[in-house]
Amino acid sequence: MEIRPGRTYPYGATYDGAGTNFAIFSEVEIRPGRTYPYGATYDGAGTNFAIFSELAEKVELCLFDDHGRETRVELPEVTGHCWHGYLPSIVVGQSYGYRVHGPWDPAKGHLCNPNKLLIDPYARSIQGDIVWNDAIFPHSGPDGAWKMNTKDSASFVPKSIVTNPFFDWTDDVKPRTPWNETVIYEMHAKGFSVINPDIPAEQRGTYSGLSHPAAIDYLKKLGVTAVELMPVHHFVHDGHLQEKGLRNYWGYNTIGFFAPHAEYAARQVAGSQVAEFKQMVKTLHNAGIEVILDVVYNHTAEGNHMGPMLSLKGIDNTAFYRVTEDAHYYMDYTGTGNSLNMQHPNVLQLIMDSLRYWIQEMHVDGFRFDLASTLARELHDVEF
Fold first, then answer.
1. Separation CA 56–CA 5 (nearest Å)
2. N or C: which terminal CB in the chain sees fewer CB atoms within 10 Å?
3. DSSP state, residue 262
4. In 10 A of CB 45, how many CB atoms?
């Protein structure tokens, strides 16, 4: 039997001479849910959503169907600045984001703008590219008296994806190679295999290509015991690069500390990159090769005061970022426009939860920290 999307109205069964359209209205059921873990957690029957914001007055969970149509559901509970709710009907593959309602006062660094769809900081998968449209920017900037930008950004920003947490890790054993025997090969997850003729074309430049038998044979012949992957946390391509026909190849522009970068997946199906990354780690482990990640926790892709609003900036700007005495502006220890505020306990928790996730759920073996001195700053000095 063939079935097509049909129309949303009128409700009921409507015969048009060639076939029948069926439409029924149903409100999304939501329950209080749990405060932890943060993010979207699927349990086999439904999904728990939890997000931190000390500043928010209301948080809306935004659900998107395959046609981009949005349904907004207000999270019903807030416990210790954690907004949370459980939806029995939401399963793996669901696209979502957040809208945060609260104070708009740029002079104090408060940038709550519910016109902007926000990526979940704990999203395990992020799908879609940024479209560099005026709608993704929160305000007019200093020349426009910091007026709120009321254009809706939902059509122009990537969506968070509910992922499947279940994976068969049977027989996965971490190599735990002694330091005096360790040989580390630093590589770009895409560049390593993208032109290798011994790897099938559809797998080149992907996580599965990196763990293909031809790739493993090459690494073993070199005596490599560990691969250190340049950033694979989900990142964005800067607008000024795209204007020049370029892309952010290296990946030092993170927007998701839990999500493997989607472009490096062989299958471009929402959420599939998580299982593919896990399989890559398991295969490399079986070959006696450890996996180390180059991680960028010192800043995000949201840039400075004139940068886009994609996630943290709209959730709780002054909690997540270090601002100057004039809170319109950001402390920039990184040269990228912003610096994460590691002095805030929930920001520190975000980083620690990310590290735990990659070790416990993704089974990686270690990390190399980009600009670690930024993470250790207390006031302006580095606390060694």
1. 36
2. N
3. G
4. 10
Phi-psi category of residue 371: left, alpha or beta, with phi > 0 → left and psi -120 to 50 → alpha? left
Measured CA distances, 236 to 27, 257, 281 (Å): 34, 12, 24
Question: Strand, helix or coil at 291?
Answer: strand
Neighbours of 196 (CB within 10 A): 18
The predicted structure's pLDDT at residue 371: 63
pLDDT band for 24, please (50, 70, 90 cuts).
very low
Distances (CA, A) of 195 to 205, 228, 277: 8, 19, 20
Give dist(CA 114, CA 158) in Å, integer: 16
Q: Is 154 helix (H, G, I), strand (E, B) or coil?
A: helix
pLDDT tens digits for range 100-127? 999 999 999 999 999 999 999 999 999 9
Which alpha helices (H) appear in the chain, and where do they start and end?
A: 207-210, 213-222, 239-242, 272-286, 312-320, 345-360, 372-375
- Residue written as token pair 């994460």: 340
Contacts of 358 (CB under 8 A, 6+ apart): 258, 293, 364, 367
pLDDT in tens, 329-347: 999 988 889 999 988 999 9
